[in-house]
Amino acid sequence: MKAYRFDSFDSLDELRVREEADPAPQRGEVLVRVHAVSLNYRDLAMLRGRYPRKCVPGLIPTSDAAGEIVAVGEGVQAFRRGDRVIGAFHPRWFGGEAPSTVLTDSYGAEADGWLCELKALSQEAVVRLPDGLTYEEASTLPCAGLTAWTALAGPAPIRAGHTVLIQGSGGVSVFALQLARAVGARVIATTSNPAKADQLTALGAAAVVNYVDDPQWGKSVRALTGGRGVDRVVEVGGPGTIAQSLRAVAAGGEIASIGFLSAENPGIDFFQLKTSGASFRNIAVGDRAGLLDLTRAVAASGLKPIIDRVFPFEQAREAFSHLEGGTHLGKVVIRVAG
Predict the structure, then answer these.
(1) Mutual orientation of helices 171-182 and 288-301 as an angle, nearest 10°?
(2) Rounded distance between C-alpha atoms, residue 165 and residue 191, angstroms
């Protein structure tokens, strides 16, 4: 089979394709022919030295994929040849408290990922992809889709009448917009791009604030809620956006902390955090049970993931470069097999 590996994290030039032996499924495993892989910011963060955890060079990158089972090992009962599946972001986090191996299991960081033609893994590390989705669409669910789902669900699920704030137009934010609208919530978005503002509005955002033209966008978002604030902030920026998120969130609301897209690090005002009256919840994508819930919700609602562009397998480097350029809206996908 063909597989990409980062020989080092010096540059994108170190992403090289290799011919490797085809894997064989062992007892309890399935062999997946990978059809599509979607990229996440974490894939770039590892390359650029921004990932907050250990990263091992020489691994197959990426965490998200969809494919078809082409062989099963002894004892496999949950799946059979021909089943269409997606991989779980955390292959051994099935529900409840995260296992102690949750970091070392991390695809692309400490274990081989999915940017390859064939992958053998436990039958418990995959789930059936929703009917009605292509492989390319389904490949966007394991990380971005599930992260957005976890941010909106959790102890206090978002429902009709609530207001959600999303930041930017990346995969998690666009999924959060779609999922929040599906349950009847109002969505306010931020962006720096007028064209993207129009696209976010077309997807259902009730209002869009330009954070470059309006550096105090947190106050503007609060004003759009009549001074109450939003019920949930899907916080993907991290250190550079948290201060404004605290201004935007309602007392009793929640900031779902997901990413670290912003390079700025002005620090957090403890008293602003304390007096906001909001909860702060760290999101680590989610477990297999949540992924199953998401796939059911997607199938029931008819939600279609937003894909910015699909690259052929031979142009994997170009796909990474396109993601890094930041012009995308939604997900960047690599088609591995037709």
Answers:
(1) 60
(2) 11
State how far the Cα of 115 lies from the Cα of 17, in Å rounded to an integer. Answer: 9
Q: DSSP 3-state assignment of 51?
A: coil
Q: How far apart are CA 34 and CA 276, in angstroms?
A: 46
Only one residue has tokens 């605290």, namely 246
* Rounded Cα gap, residues 310 and 186, in angstroms: 30
pLDDT digits (tens, 9 = 90+) for 285-331: 999 999 999 999 999 999 999 999 999 999 999 999 999 998 999 99
How far apart CA 225 and CA 230 sit, in angstroms, is 7
**Neighbour count for residue 253 (Cβ, 10 Å):** 24
Distance between CA 268 and CA 263 in Å, rounded? 14
Q: How far apart are CA 91 and CA 224, in angstroms?
A: 41
200 membership: H or E segment, kind and range: helix 194-202
Pairing of strands 126-128, 118-122: unpaired
Cβ-contact 188, 176 below 8 angstroms: no
Q: Could you give the CA distance from residue 242 to residue 229 in angstroms, rounded to a whole number?
A: 14
Nearest to 37 by CA among 322, 310, 289, 294: 310
Q: Tokens 């990263």 identify what position?
A: 55
Supply the DSSP symbol for 161. Answer: T
**Residue 88 tokens, joined:** 């779980």
Residue 180: C-alpha distances to residues 95, 151, 156, 233, 305 (Å): 23, 10, 13, 12, 14
Q: What is the per-residue pLDDT across 77-109, written as a single tens digit (0 to 9) for each?
A: 999 999 999 999 999 999 999 988 888 888 999
CA 261/CA 269 separation, integer angstroms: 19
Tokens of 36: 């599509």
* Residue pLDDT, tens place only, 158-210: 999 999 999 999 999 999 999 999 999 999 999 999 999 999 999 999 999 99
Tokens in use for 199?
């696209």
Which of 1, 34, 35 shows the shortest CA–CA distance to 18? 1
- The partner residues of 191 in beta bridges, in order of sequence, read 210
C-alpha 183/C-alpha 86 separation (Å) is: 24
